[in-house]
Please model this.
Amino acid sequence: MELEKIFQNLGIGGDIAETLSVVLFLLALSVLFWFLIGRFRLHNFLINTYISLAIVSVIPQSLVSLSDNSRAMVFMIVATLLTLMNRYIFDIHQSGSGLAIWQVVVMSFLELMLFLSIILSFLPNYELPKYISNASLGYLTDPRWLLAWMILPLVFLALVKKRGW
Model:
């Protein structure tokens, strides 16, 4: 990444520069995700992600054995279809003005990390290090981190609702 070279020129070490580059890239992607989904549909997309994961988890391997990436593709297709059909399936309406801007950015980040970690967990391990370092990849594919990305959006929603941030 070009951003990584900028950090290295500032005297920041290689691993830290790479981690900062990935974090900044993911934050920018989170804002783009927020604009794409919309601040009032973040809850719906979170539910769609969990439903898509549940559906893909019970599909027999024989049905999705076309390629190594079949499960990831089916997951993305199901999540996209559920999101597009959201108005007809279930529409969760948020009363009031919704989440504050900082809450929307945090929620977008948590949902994006969940979505990416699910997709990357379905992809073959031998292809992933070509695009991202093993250190950064661990935060997305390690089972403990996948569990954390599954739980953190729910914990954040509970804290926001309870404390009225």
Notes: DSSP finds eight helices and no strands in the chain.
